[in-house]
Structures are given as structure tokens and as C-alpha cells.
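Quick one, C-alpha cells below. Sequence please?
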């Protein structure tokens, strides 16, 4: 066991940490953030249009088209928004002009989304084009950066205005990038979006399965136990997939079709993220209700408010949970078990699937109700989950609390 632990801490964890700091992972993490305001805006109108209140559908029927227009604009061009975010972040990381890099990246993406008549098809600019937006933005930026690094650009005298000079500098790199994708999509008639979707299909299928999401949870949590921010490491890869699931669910609901993706973005609010990663709110409640030591009583006061708003770091590093063998077992087991149960509850339609997005700092119960489109059973289940989490954390917490209490009394004596 010690050999495995040492290997994980000394080899596996550093390798994953290095991976998370790669240029493309950083671009993916930061580039996707731009979608949040748009998805939340669209989700507000999605919730308003689909509240499960008797008579609500008839009440909003005259305004349904107007409500749906906000959903359509927010989610109908999501892939374009991803292309903007990814192209901008790649331009920054490649140290090229961000406006130029963003414009070229978005243009390259739109070129790749041409239909059989070689015209832009608006229906493909939503969730269906997300992965293409990511890949094309990365490749486009690398092509532009290559030409600039090799000085394969048009340079003008210093007397020329900077705005004019920069446009000429971008001329050859832009032609190279757009020409590359034009050859593939138009000259060779290769459907780039279809190819990229096929490449990502195993990852998409895996993360929409019980064992796939459980494995992702396990890696995230075990990285946290050794002091590595598991959400950043795994989130860079998993977050676009979960967002894709959410967009697909929203699109289905807006068409009157039942959602099909269980692990859509927001699914982890049912176990994993109760008060922050690892259901930390349950540990805070243990401190508030059962602590005898001054240390944990004080810690509860400091960590309670942040945990209510899904911020776990004060407890994660102040308790600490990180590098704490006593808490490692409940920290890993609780989210995996609760998310596993949630998976089957949603699959059996006992709880509604996620069809909306709220800010990640939205407190428990409120987030469950809103992201499921107003399903009252969601916050009830979250309450049950919280009680279970407190019950599981409690015996492990008492071991630590007794030890701290004894140390305080020995010190005082």
C-alpha cells in the first residue's frame, strides 16, 4: 500500500499537475469561462418558460415565443462564443495580438461549419459545434503563431500608423490559417465538424455513463487529498463535455423533448459540490454541532459562510482535509456514493435532469431547485444527501476533535 501511495504522490499526481498547466489545458479552462454569462442568461428564461406550476404553461403561453428568443440567442450561438473565448486565450498564450488572433480563430471556425452548399448553417452553431470550436481555435492560433515567430509577415515602415501596420502583419498568417481550413472543408469536402464529433464520441459517451463519471470523481477527489486542485486538473477536460450535455438538454426541452444527458453541467451539485468539493458543508455542520475543541469551533465559524456559497478552500486547507489520512475515506466515498445514487434517481426520472445553469456560488437547495427547472424533489434529495454526508463524516470528525481537545487541555495544564 505504501508503494502505491508513494507512486501516486511522486509520479502520478505530478504528471497530472503538469498536464493541467499545459498551454492547451489553460486555454480550455479559461476560454470556456466566457460561456457562463450567456448560459445563465438563457437558463433564466428556460426556467421561466418551464416552471412546473399548475396553470403556469397556460399563463406564459402568449409570451412563450418571446421567452424562447432569449434561450435561442444564448444557446444557439454557443459554439461561436466558445470559439471567441478559446481564440482569445490562445492568442494571449501565444503572445500574438488578441484581436487579430480572435478574429482569425472565429473565422476559421465558421469556415469549418459550412454545410453541403458551402454556406453557414446557423443550426450547427450551438452545442453541436462546441468541440469543433475548441479544436479549430487551437490549430488556427498555432498556425498564426508559427508564421509570426518565423517572421513570415509583411512589415511596413515605422512611419505607417500602427493600426495599418498590424493589419498587414496579420495578412499572411490569416491567409495561411483560413486557407488551411478552406482546403480541408471546401477543396477536399471533408466535414470537419463530423470528424471532430466522431473523435470526441468516446469521451462524451464515457462521461455520460455511471462508471465514467464515478472514475472522474475518484480522480478529482484523490488528487485533492494530496494537495492538488483536482477540479482544475480534471475540469479542463470534463467541463466542455458536461457543458455540451447541458446545452443538449436545454435544446431538447425547448423543443418539448425530454432531456437525455444525466451528467450535464450541474449534476455534481447533487453530492460532490454540497458546500464545495467533497460535500464540505457536512463537515462544517459536524464542527458547528459537535465540536468540543476550540480549534474546530473557531474553524466552523470561519468556514460556514464560504461553504454555504460553495467555497470549500477555508475548510479544505484550514481543517485541513488535504493530506489528512483520517478524512480521506469519507472525503472520497461520500461524493461518489451520493452521485451514484443521484445518477440512478435521474435515470429513473425520480428526480429531474439538469436543464439550466446557475452561478456556481448558488447555495444548496436553491441550486437544485433551479437547475432542474423547478423540480421540488431535487432540493428534498439534496437535504437527504446532506444528512447522510453529516452522518458519515461525524465518526471521522470525532476522532480528530477528541485529539485536538486533548492537545488543548494538555497545553493548558
Amino acid at each position: 500500500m505504501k508503494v502505491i501511495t508513494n507512486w501516486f504522490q511522486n509520479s502520478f499526481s505530478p504528471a497530472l499537475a503538469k498536464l493541467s498547466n499545459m498551454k492547451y489545458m489553460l486555454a480550455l479552462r479559461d476560454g470556456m469561462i466566457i460561456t457562463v454569462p450567456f448560459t445563465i442568461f438563457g437558463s433564466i428564461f428556460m426556467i421561466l418558460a418551464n416552471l412546473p406550476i399548475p396553470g403556469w404553461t397556460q399563463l406564459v403561453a402568449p409570451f412563450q415565443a418571446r421567452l424562447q428568443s432569449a434561450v435561442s440567442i444564448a444557446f444557439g450561438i454557443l459554439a461561436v462564443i466558445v470559439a471567441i473565448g478559446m481564440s482569445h486565450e490562445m492568442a494571449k498564450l501565444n503572445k500574438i495580438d488578441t484581436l487579430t488572433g480572435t478574429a482569425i480563430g472565429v473565422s476559421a471556425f465558421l469556415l469549418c461549419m459550412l454545410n453541403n452548399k458551402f454556406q453557414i448553417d446557423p443550426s450547427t452553431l450551438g452545442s453541436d459545434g462546441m468541440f469543433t470550436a475548441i479544436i479549430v481555435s487551437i490549430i488556427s492560433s498555432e498556425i498564426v503563431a508559427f508564421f509570426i515567430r518565423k517572421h513570415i509577415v509583411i512589415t511596413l515602415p515605422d512611419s505607417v500608423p500602427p493600426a495599418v501596420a498590424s493589419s498587414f502583419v496579420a495578412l499572411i498568417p490569416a491567409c495561411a490559417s483560413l486557407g488551411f481550413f478552406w482546403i480541408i472543408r471546401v477543396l477536399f469536402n471533408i466535414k470537419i465538424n463530423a470528424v471532430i464529433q466522431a473523435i470526441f464520441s468516446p469521451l462524451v459517451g464515457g462521461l455520460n455513463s455511471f462508471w465514467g463519471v464515478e472514475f472522474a470523481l475518484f480522480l478529482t477527489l484523490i488528487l485533492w487529498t494530496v494537495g492538488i486542485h483536482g477540479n482544475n486538473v480534471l475540469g479542463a477536460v470534463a467541463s466542455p463535455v458536461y457543458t455540451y450535455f447541458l446545452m443538449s438538454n436545454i435544446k431538447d426541452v425547448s423543443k418539448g423533448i425530454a432531456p437525455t444527458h444525466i451528467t450535464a453541467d450541474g449534476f455534481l451539485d447533487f453530492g460532490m459540490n454540497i458546500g464545495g468539493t467533497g460535500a464540505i458543508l457536512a463537515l462544517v455542520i459536524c464542527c458547528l454541532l459537535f465540536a468540543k475543541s476550540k480549534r474546530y469551533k473557531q474553524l466552523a465559524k470561519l468556514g460556514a459562510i464560504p461553504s454555504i456559497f460553495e467555497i470549500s478552500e477555508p475548510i479544505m486547507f484550514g481543517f485541513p482535509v488535504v493530506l489528512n489520512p483520517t478524512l480521506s475515506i469519507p472525503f472520497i466515498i461520500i461524493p461518489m456514493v451520493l452521485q451514484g445514487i443521484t445518477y440512478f434517481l435521474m435515470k429513473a426520472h425520480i428526480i429531474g435532469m439538469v436543464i439550466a445553469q446557475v452561478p456556481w456560488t448558488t447555495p444548496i437547495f436553491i441550486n437544485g431547485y433551479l437547475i432542474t427547472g423547478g423540480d421540488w424533489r431535487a432540493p428534498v434529495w439534496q437535504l437527504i444527501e446532506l444528512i447522510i454526508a453529516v452522518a458519515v463524516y461525524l465518526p471521522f470528525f470525532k476522532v480528530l476533535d477528541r485529539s485536538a481537545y486533548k492537545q488543548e487541555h494538555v497545553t493548558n495544564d
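The chain has a mean pLDDT of 87. The two ends are 39 Å apart (CA to CA).
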